[in-house]
Amino acid sequence: MTTTDVGRQVVVLTGAGSGVGRTIARALLDEGHHVVLAGRTVSALEETAAGADRALLVQTDVTSSASVRALFDHTVERFGRVDVLVNNAGVFGPAVTVDALTDDDWAAVMATNVTGAVFCAREAVRVMRTQSPGGGRIINNGSLSAHVPRPASVAYAVSKHAISGLTASINLDHRAHGICCTQIDIGNAATAMTAGVGVDALQPNGTRRPEPTIDAAHVGDLVARLIALPLDVNVPQLTVMAREMPFAGRG
């Protein structure tokens, strides 16, 4: 197939089994795209797909280069190309400061949030550079924590700053190959991962209070509009957040 098939694109989406990934998947399926749902748990991917006939489910561990390679091999075998990668898989990690961070917790956050994103971007770029027509779009799920961290979130904050470096490097190194890369920084989308934020969020001054949230479906709609752009249009960075949430200085 090609990208001219009634406007449908082939989208690889990691972390598709829950949260923001699930809302993005459903938005793209509703738009008529072919969506490859990647995640650790098949039953969760099945819930996301909900019988959609344009969804391909691939059990994937993004921390394994072999597993990621197999994900893209399956995608190309089924659809012949990759138009979009949404690098969404991620974990928050422990709510600790750097002096209390264990080796295992640090490694786990970096393996999923950074190494996993790099592995997926590597395979996507390899396909996008050689397919015909060439090019494609990569969307990296960043965070407001790539700009200002939450208190006691050192591993997560460092990992999301790394995503900024990955995004910038892809845009620099592969723009001549028709590849666009966007970092989408999401603030307080209501998911299971952020459930506590709307009830009892730690503030920089040590107090706790609820913060405003937004429906995660708005993120899915935004991603759908982003990938509808032609490849001669790049949006390097995008922020979507609850209007009244603390952001600048987390205050």
Give the structure's gist in a few sentences.
By secondary structure, the chain is an alpha/beta fold. It is built from 6 helices and 11 strands. The chain has one domain: 3-Layer(aba) Sandwich (Rossmann fold), CATH 3.40.50.720.
Q: What do these coordinates show?
A:
This protein has helices at 19-30, 42-49, 65-79, 103-130, 154-174, 217-227; strands spanning 10-14, 34-39, 55-59, 84-87, 136-141, 179-187, 189-190, 201-202, 208-209, 214-215, 237-241. With 251 residues, it is an alpha/beta fold. The protein has one domain (10-250): NAD(P)-binding Rossmann-like Domain (Rossmann fold, 3-Layer(aba) Sandwich). A 7-stranded parallel sheet has the order 3-2-1-4-5-6-11, with helices on both faces. It has a two-stranded parallel sheet with strand order 7-10. Helix 1 (19-30) packs across helix 6, helix 3 (65-79) packs parallel to helix 4 and helix 4 (103-130) runs parallel beside helix 5 (154-174). The radius of gyration is 18 Å and the shape is globular. 42% of the residues are buried.
Fourth-level CATH superfamily: NAD(P)-binding Rossmann-like Domain
> In whole angstroms, how far apart are the ends?
49 Å
Name the CATH architecture: 3-Layer(aba) Sandwich
- Provide the domain count: 1
Strand arrangement in the largest pleated sheet: 3-2-1-4-5-6-11
At the first level of CATH, the class is: Alpha Beta
Total DSSP helices: 6
pLDDT < 50 stretches = 1-6
Elements, N to C (H/E) = EHEHEHEHEHEEEEEHE
Mean pLDDT, all residues: 91
**Rg on CA atoms, Å:** 18 Å
User: Helicity level, as a percent range?
Assistant: 25-40%
Structural class: alpha/beta
